[in-house]
């Protein structure tokens, strides 16, 4: 199930709200768990059982680590056993056919592919479970209440597309959290802004991208429109989902950490990754990069550590070479910046932005490609490879038709709207008007988003496949 | 309004909207036909163990997948929400089209772009096959005419994408060397089409009929009576555009000859007597179907008032339904064949081409999607 669907909004969510707020606090986690399992099972009942297995592994080994905490060797064994078990089934479901495909290509053999469907959100809940087990190993008290731990791992607001919520960040709230009108209102606002970002911007840009992909005759300008629309689409899709997740969490008393902080205003790739998918970046930092030694090692080892992290970042996003290349592309950029260009980039005012945006656009063209061949063909097209014309009537038509959406998306990808709204609300004269307009705007965004859902068909999130 | 009150307003108003719509989703009677979209809605799926255990969205026939479609189709005030979306897309996002539908010069139309040369090639091959299989050696009176769709008149002028009509004509006419081409482009203008529908208006195409009949040497001066249907006509683009538009009015032409014609339909596989104008369908879901009863693989119109024994065979699409009655006067029998619904290999079992006039009459819309020809 996805948030941007009629089923979610008017059946699942409505029922959940009634039950969640109707029961006493001690039963709220049970209601949250029950609905989270239903939410997940909607995408495939048998895969819900897989998630339950991951929960049991995390729960059992968390308790075992806690019980044998004095014995370092045993706790280390338990920690590794749990982590490897969870990674094993992620590898099986997500990467088996990728390995078979590459093995076949390398050896010339033709091993049959397995009929495996990727369970939605497997990358998110497995990472959360792994972080829980490692955190317990590092000294965080294990969760003794199975329902509370299961509610954390399966929590539907962030279950299938993040952000990756650490157990330590919500442990206290699982035990005790407060609900108030102010928090619910804050959550509603955040959720509806995310819904609007997803349906009104991301889905429109995705539609344009699909249209362009289907065109027989492309132009240089069309390839650029594609590149920009893909970069904006991925941002609005993913950050929209994160907004919805954070908003839902807020409604139900949780405070999830932010996942995006206007990455497209960055002055370097390094800064971009401090602002993009922050929960994934910090996960790899804390559970891969630092354990590998981080930067407190030899230069060569440091470079190796960075490549490992970026290889895994790319591979985490999908079992295909274009994701790996996408990750390594950023790894190389970050290394070049770290050792050579960062100090110059930080001094410039314009070039740094152009450079960062170019890097982001090119990287997302690779990211969104069905394979590397297509990715390189599209990048080639952006620079006129093949002697294609610069512009055509068709290109101008779609540029015209999507111009307003592009402008809104570009403005929305910067803090301009947020900062303006804050300034206006602080103004004595305009503050009152803003306060009146805000609920109206929220309702309008919601109803228009629903109208797009009613008119359109099912629109799954991009990050479902990760 | 202070922040506290604002927050209460947000919570209360959203709760009212959410729970009201949820209640309507659950309890409002469901439509059994979506008039604006001319289709049946997805029905509530069977709640069986087998359907539920299928992988949600991965399988189109799983309970979850079907329920998603059902929930959208059964959503309360569906048409109003679709209109809201269309207004937003058109006037806020300033998008040129909404689901490929646009309104220009008061006319709703659907973008047909680009020219699919493989489709045109396919249509040409199909026509050639029909000629060589059934007509060669039996008749030399073979004609071809192409009906421009509405985009020909309004798309390019209003900044919309349009087919390369010259290329389309060149390909079709160039390959049909067995047929005489009758050019009707110059006789048509945008007002000859319904504003909310794809089709042309029968009362506006008498000159087209005259030119075709003259080219075939069968023109007979006829006085038609113009009748107006007392039922609003919301064409196919009305529902797709979802924008506020005034309905069209259907006018249809009658004459003594048309009143006495005997019409036989093969829509149900067996011959059934019907009429030139089906007045039941005139008040049905698609009033344009009143012209010869709508989609039909084979229709035979016999004219007892004919002053000769000439026969006409028309290979046609839905545009042919409204013009064919205007071609009847000069013939004793007119046979309409729609190879979208009849196998080309079967045509010979039903139609006699011996010394008959044959007219290939197709709209550019159908030619550009010719793979639907059987």
Provide tags for this entry.
heterodimer, A: 466 residues, mainly alpha, 2 domains, 0% strand, globular, disordered C terminus, B: 374 residues, elongated
Task: Give an overview in words.
The complex is a heterodimer of chains A (466) and B (374). Chain A contains 20 helices and no strands. Chain A has 466 residues and is mostly helical. An 8-stranded mixed sheet of chain B has the order 4-3-12-10-11-9-7-8. In chain B, strands 1-2 form a two-stranded antiparallel sheet. Chain B has a two-stranded antiparallel ribbon with strand order 5-6. Helices cover 33% and strands 17% of the residues of chain B. With 374 residues, chain B is an alpha/beta fold.
The chain-level structural class of chain A is mainly alpha
N-to-C SSE string of chain B, H for helix and E for strand = HHHHEEHEHHEHEHEHEEEEHEHEH
Radius of gyration of chain A: 23 Å
Instruction: Describe the largest sheet of chain A.
Output: none
Q: List SSEs of chain A in N-to-C order.
A: HHHHHHHHHHHHHHHHHHHH
> N- to C-terminal separation of chain A?
15 Å
Topology:
The complex is a heterodimer of chains A (466) and B (374).
Chain A: H1 6-22, H2 25-41, H3 45-67, H4 72-107, H5 122-137, H6 146-154, H7 156-159, H8 167-175, H9 181-214, H10 220-251, H11 269-275, H12 278-289, H13 299-317, H14 321-347, H15 351-368, H16 372-382, H17 393-401, H18 403-412, H19 416-426, H20 428-455
Helix pairs in contact in A: 1-2, 2-3, 2-6, 3-4, 3-5, 3-6, 4-5, 6-8, 9-10, 9-18, 9-20, 10-15, 10-16, 12-13, 13-14, 14-15, 15-16, 19-20
Chain B: H1 3-27, H2 49-53, H3 63-73, H4 78-92, E1 101-104, E2 107-110, H5 117-135, E3 142-147, H6 151-154, H7 165-175, E4 180-181, H8 206-215, E5 225-233, H9 236-241, E6 248-254, H10 256-260, E7 262-265, E8 272-274, E9 298-302, E10 311-316, H11 319-323, E11 333-337, H12 347-350, E12 357-363, H13 364-367
Parallel strand pairs in B: 3-4, 3-12, 10-11, 10-12
Antiparallel strand pairs in B: 1-2, 5-6, 7-8, 7-9, 9-11
